[in-house]
Fold this sequence. Notes:
7 helices, 11% strand
Amino acid sequence: xxxxxxxxxxxxxxxxxxxxxxxxxxxxxxxxxxxxxxxxxxxxxxxxxxxxxxxxxxxxxxxxxxxxxxxxxxxxxxxxxxxxxxxxxxxxxxxxxxxxxxxxxxxxxxxxxxxxxxxxxxxxxxxxxxxxxxxxxxxxxxxxxxxxxxxxxxxxxxxxxxxxxxxxxxxxxxxxxxxxxxxxxxx
Length: 187
């Protein structure tokens, strides 16, 4: 059986996590985002007291933080190989890490790019920024304008690795889930 790995991505506050949870409720295996727990821990352990949109402001070693994030996403990618299923879903993919690093003007070693080149997903679904549903919280630190800019970085990052991200329509959660599953010919 050939496993298909499907990424659901998008800027903060676009509804991707709730869509991933809905796909999981339909019985598909899903690997959940790890950045929120990493950001919460970094904020707890960090010394910054003023709100900032860059979670790296809370860590002593931003490159190490991103390396751990990339390694966590790579671990999810490899863990999917152990599942006896035809398809698995990921809340964000490895190129997301580089998109954010580019956005925050961080440099990174070629190994970051190589990880993205060497570990390919089968389809990328991207949630566009949607002002009417955008809400910030303790781990979602970006403004809506920053979310729009991050969307462009995500698109550019995935395209740079040869993907053609599929834009998910701004509609209800069930309709978004149905759109993705229909595009993949799963329903």
